[in-house]
């Protein structure tokens, strides 16, 4: 079956009795064109089912309005609301997202090079395990699209990041836990990353060391997965006598905290928070459910995405910024 032919700008121009360039201006935001001419073009375009060829337009404008989004940890449920808010904001600016799944068969450097071949206007890194060597300027083409990090800090000077302020957020969490009387804290970490750092652990442990000389044990889950969290806490509780255990567990994100709560309650019969208090980070909706009632620090997702979009559109300078969120105190602490 042959593919039906699509209406062209020339077809619309003929029907509207105008030039092809008038049709182009009618579909170009901000272009100079008389209102009655624009309305005439749009009416005829609607009748013919005409839509501008965005790929062809990109050859003239040198922009595609495509943004590549790289994600490497789909097990983390917080990625879904991040993608929802980010793609909605991009679409509001007449931009579209190209989602690239980073995995063992397709690493970060391959993804960035692939995105460059597709002539995207920018690449947004929404993940945790990005390696420094993959993001160095020397390994990427000079014409590469600009790179940004969202919801994580960046340790690479030339890559701007928009993130929740780790210093402010962990100070709020620590002050709350200290006021509640906890004195044997532990920290559950996710994946360790080189180029996109999480300052949550360093700020958390520094507070307890400075406040009371307490060395915080680390329960390393290795990934943002509730099953990994379950195994990390399971191993710790099996190996640690009850009298020597932590009394509060700070988790690097809500996915880890949820896995920890389930394991503490259902495998070891511990009461939360009476036997073990647990706190998370992100402000995931699931954390607020009665089943978990999790204390968490809510990231300012809307504000972070808005700041990133302003950089993409050139309305503000491309630079790393940290924004404050909100501590949500619930029954788990």
UniProtKB/TrEMBL annotation:
Looking at the record, the residues that make up the HTH lacI-type domain are: 7-61
Q: Name one Pfam family in it.
A: Peripla_BP_3
Give TM segment ranges: none
Q: Which UniProt keywords apply?
A: DNA-binding, Transcription, Transcription regulation
> What superkingdom heads the lineage?
Bacteria
Single Gene Ontology MF annotation: DNA binding
| Protein name, per record | LacI family DNA-binding transcriptional regulator
